[in-house]
Amino acid sequence: MDVILIMCLGVLVGSRFFPKQYKKLCERLQVVCTLALIFCMGVMLGQRPGFLQELGQLGLQSLVFCLVPVAFSVLFVYLLTCRFMNGREKRNKRR
């Protein structure tokens, strides 16, 4: 959580207080720092004892955490589309 707060603070400071001429430099620095963060997270995960044994379970959990929000998002959009677009289609047929 601390990392996300620091990254958001960096984006805020970079967008508000740095001159426009340094915008491209700030964008590149943010990308480099994000890549370094992802690399460090990978190194920390790789150092965990028993990581390879946990990888199967972590992969399954990640899949579930991915599929459940996607499924509910699709369902939500479908229900909203059915509710609000049916009236519009009926009005278009009358014309």
UniProtKB/TrEMBL annotation:
Transmembrane segments annotated in the record for this chain: 29-46, 58-80
Protein name per its UniProtKB record: DUF340 domain-containing protein
Keywords for this protein: Membrane, Transmembrane, Transmembrane helix
